[in-house]
């Protein structure tokens, strides 16, 4: 087993490497341990990488994410039992954002599931949670006519994100597939040939911009990466790391597991109540606990905060009203696009109305913030 196929916890010394690790090193990337993987934090300026995604395009290595294939006659019913969403109504070629919860309703992970056929789905959990989700699936599959196969160790994932993403892919796919690229709906997927390499092409992402995610076997990942970099150069595409990915997703108001989501947080507290399907017949794991709390006012809710000054709140900082703590920041930093500090915070719902003025304790110094509607940034359509 090589570094390219080793997952965290498989016995290797230090964090795991994706199949593209050498490509990142050759580009001068700074690395960080994320979810047990040695991932590029940035290649140069994280601000430049952020702006490239907003104005042109960025290329991300997301191969630390998991990929679990579910096949068989009971695939949809199994997923309806394992996850909170309703996959029986998901059309072939479409994707759904969902959650996997424990029996108490706490969030084990948030994930995207693609329906590739009537009896075939690809589930994509977050990096650090992929082994946990795979183990939960194996346990929850008992009694169902399904096959659950964890393909994380053999699959790479790269993402082209930004307004130039369609133009870049048009140069890489056969002429007959250009309409597939430009006409693909958001949260949809289809097989495609990119630079002569067969991939699963999905119009999904985590940046708030238009863009695509490309699933490819490890053996072809480096060739695909280089081809996209070369084609994208004329369009302003540059490689982008986890630092810019985090600032981009925060501007888009997208939650990060471990910050906004955890086993101690239910979908209602995370603002994800609509993701839970109570209409489906299946008794999904966590349903009883969530149904019991469905009509209750959550003890905390997730809100967006905009700073009045220049200093940013960070995860763990206390949110105050009249000097009394009513919550805490879950993610926060200065917004490169908007030019002011932004944050997500979990707070007492009594103070969650848009326009409410709060303070954040910035290491002993109070700073004024205001509750604002999410997302902070929305791209022009």
UniProtKB/TrEMBL annotation:
It catalyses: N(6)-[(R)-S(8)-aminomethyldihydrolipoyl]-L-lysyl-[protein] + (6S)-5,6,7,8-tetrahydrofolate = N(6)-[(R)-dihydrolipoyl]-L-lysyl-[protein] + (6R)-5,10-methylene-5,6,7,8-tetrahydrofolate + NH4(+). It is an enzyme of class 2 (transferase). Residues 300-377 form the Aminomethyltransferase C-terminal domain. Keywords: Aminotransferase, Transferase. Residues 20-280 form the GCVT N-terminal domain. Transmembrane segments: none annotated. InterPro entries: GcvT, GcvT/YgfZ/DmdA, GcvT/YgfZ_C, GcvT_bac, GcvT_C, GCVT_N, TrmE/GcvT-like. Gene3D superfamilies: Aminomethyltransferase beta-barrel domains, Aminomethyltransferase fragment, Probable tRNA modification gtpase trme, domain 1. The glycine cleavage system is composed of four proteins: P, T, L and H. HAMAP family: GcvT. The glycine cleavage system catalyzes the degradation of glycine. This is Aminomethyltransferase. It comes from Leucobacter chromiireducens subsp. solipictus.
């Amino acid at each position: 087993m090589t570094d390219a196929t080793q997952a965290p916890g498989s016995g290797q010394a230090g964090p795991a490497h994706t199949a593209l690790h050498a490509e990142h090193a050759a580009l001068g990337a700074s690395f960080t341990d994320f979810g047990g993987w040695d991932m590029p934090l940035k290649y140069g300026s994280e601000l430049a990488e952020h702006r490239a995604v907003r104005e042109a395009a960025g290329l991300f290595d997301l191969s630390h994410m998991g990929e679990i294939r579910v096949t068989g006659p009971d695939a949809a019913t199994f997923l309806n039992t394992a996850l909170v969403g309703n996959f029986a109504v998901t059309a072939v070629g479409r994707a759904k954002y969902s959650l996997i919860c424990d029996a108490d309703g706490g969030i084990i992970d948030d994930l995207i599931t693609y329906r590739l056929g009537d009896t075939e789905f690809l589930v994509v959990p977050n990096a650090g949670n992929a082994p946990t989700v795979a183990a939960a699936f194996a346990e929850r599959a008992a009694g169902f006519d399904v096959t659950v196969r964890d393909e994380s160790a053999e699959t790479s994932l790269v993402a082209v994100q930004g307004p130039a993403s369609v133009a870049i892919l048009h140069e890489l796919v056969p002429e007959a597939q250009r309409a597939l690229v430009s006409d693909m709906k958001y949260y949809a997927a289809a097989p495609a040939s990119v630079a002569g390499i067969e991939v699963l092409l999905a119009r999904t992402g985590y940046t708030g911009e238009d863009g695509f995610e490309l699933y490819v076997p490890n053996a072809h990942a480096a060739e695909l990466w280089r081809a996209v970099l070369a084609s994208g150069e004329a369009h302003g595409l540059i490689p982008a790391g986890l630092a810019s990915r985090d600032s981009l997703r925060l501007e888009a108001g997208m939650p990060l597991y471990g910050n906004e989501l955890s086993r101690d947080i239910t979908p209602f507290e995370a603002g994800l109540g609509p993701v839970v399907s109570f209409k489906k017949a299946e008794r999904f794991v966590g349903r009883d606990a969530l149904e019991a709390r469905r009509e209750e006012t959550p003890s905390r809710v997730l809100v967006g905060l905009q700073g009045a000054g220049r200093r940013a709140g960070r995860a763990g900082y206390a949110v105050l009203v009249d000097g009394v703590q009513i919550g805490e920041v879950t993610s926060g930093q200065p917004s490169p696009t908007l030019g002011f500090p932004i944050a997500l915070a979990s707070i007492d719902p009594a103070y969650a109305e848009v326009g409410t003025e709060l303070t954040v304790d910035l290491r002993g110094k109070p700073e004024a913030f205001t509750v604002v509607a999410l997302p902070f940034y929305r791209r022009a359509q």
